[in-house]
Amino acid sequence: MNHLLTATLAVRVPVNATGDLAEGAATVLARLDAVERVEETDVRGLQPGLNDTVVDLEVRLAVADDDAAAARREIESGVGVVGVETVVCEEEPTEAEPPAQPPPGVG
Q1: Which residues contact 94 (CB under 8 A, 6 or more apart)?
Q2: Total domain count for the chain?
């Protein structure tokens, strides 16, 4: 089961990251164990540096952890995460999509 969270946070995106800064931030977050997938990113600010850019963003994440506080702790301690301002659980857990059923008479 997945839980959807909306988080306001800052992520360190390396200079050589592929894609734009939003994609780079999503890649950093997707590598975290707590994150199942990144649903949406909304860049709120940039802090350029010599070797990386800190991207402030609001992001919607699907996480496997059923405890928003535990998910926040895992995200805060993640590699590339500079800081977490807010984490809000959006909705009840959602089941993964069931596998497609074969047409009648097949199988």
Answers
A1: 1, 2, 3, 4
A2: 1
